[in-house]
């Protein structure tokens, strides 16, 4: 039995999404090199995603409480995670060690919710937009809010020691 490309598309898409999540969760553990350009691109994409969630909340009034609550919870978790992140400014590069439990737990929460929706048949029958789940939108807003606040805060934390070092060198 030979599978054609249209028949393999769900398998390839699932494998691709699995690989993306594996890399995302793996990046929550251990010392990470801070790459400013990559971080700026990620923040831009997350900003667009947050705007899309806000637009979705406006267009689908039954999901706005979930988006609002998720955004606030994500921002609070982002601030909490920044307090538990160790930043190491070096001469050439900057490194940080994120708290592995916070980002990993949020990623697993999203994977669990997607698996729950998938098991319920939400993705196989072509879900109409009027049945968008407030819980799923809340979890998505939590993740986007968390990564936005964490990314902006991490950028500020890494720039602060560099600015302090430059100020002390001038004196």
Summarize the structure.
The protein has five helices and three strands. The protein is mainly α and 171 residues long.
Provide tags for this entry:
mainly alpha; 171 residues; 3 strands; three-stranded antiparallel β-sheet
Write a structural description:
- The structure is a single chain.
- The protein has 171 residues and is mainly alpha-helical.
- It has one domain (33-170).
- It has 5 helices and 3 strands; from the N terminus they run αβααββαα.
- Strands 1-3-2 form a 3-stranded antiparallel beta sheet, covered by helices on one side.
- Helix 1 runs antiparallel to helix 4.
- It is globular, with a radius of gyration of 19 Å.
- The termini are far apart.
Largest beta-sheet characterization: 3 strands, antiparallel
Count of separate DSSP helical elements: 5
Radius of gyration based on Cα positions? 19 Å
Task: Name the beta content range.
Answer: 5-15%
